[in-house]
Design brief:
This protein is of the alpha/beta class. Helix content is about 30%, strand content about 20%. A hairpin with a 6-residue loop joins strand 12 and strand 13 (about 230).
Amino acid sequence: MRIHKVRPDIGVLSDSLQVPGIGYLPVNAFVLLAAQPVVVDTGLGLPDRDFLEALGSVMDPADVRWIWLTHDDRDHTGGIFDLLAAAPEARVVCTFGTAGRMASERPIPVDRLYLLNPGQSLDVGDRTLTGFRPPLYDNPTTVAFFDDRSGACFSADCFGGPMPTVDLAEADDVGEVDDDDLHAAQLLWATVDSPWVENVDPGKFLATFRPIRDRDPGLILSAHLPPATGLTAPMLDTLGAAAGASPWVPPDQAALELLLSGFEPEGDDEDDEDGGAQ
């Protein structure tokens, strides 16, 4: 996990996952160093990731006051319960749906919840965070938000795009990616993460861009893209081109078996050596 600051008041906890057939998918969490500090999503829950340790390089977890879960997918909730234990005054900002879906496995204590819907706002001391539903999402409980002080848009999965290398997936800024490659990656991700975009009415779909166009944020912070500075307009144009796009077709069982056939069974070399010695 790579930690850096995209602004003096915004830390990025960059991680990534290799997805066969797609590339390296950025998986970001964020720290908003507001008067009442906010952690945005809590990373992967894989055994070799320590979200609290990564967060501790930016701030003392005990000082966290809000944990904004954009939605309850596993790549956004990996460190949630460790963080709740380490930050006794923190409350989880999420929707009723997120809280309910998480309760099917491990509920968030009700007294630690702060339920917020798209269009509602949260005062965190020195700024206001306003929730909205982004144009693309893979989870019906998704709530992204605007920060009125920094001018940043925390966009959940929207604007994501797989990268060809780990270094680009965890880059300081997506400006390091070639424009054409970025366009292709974001269109691919739109069809992977939001396959329903194939069936949208283009006019109605483009109307969902209005909250972002009206705010015109100078910084887009997606969970699945390196930070994007000054690229809001062209990235919206890219998303607009996704309307009607056919969904990505994932590997099936035949493809999996073909992949597995390329691996040499464990022990073959050793058996050959033993056989040659006899």
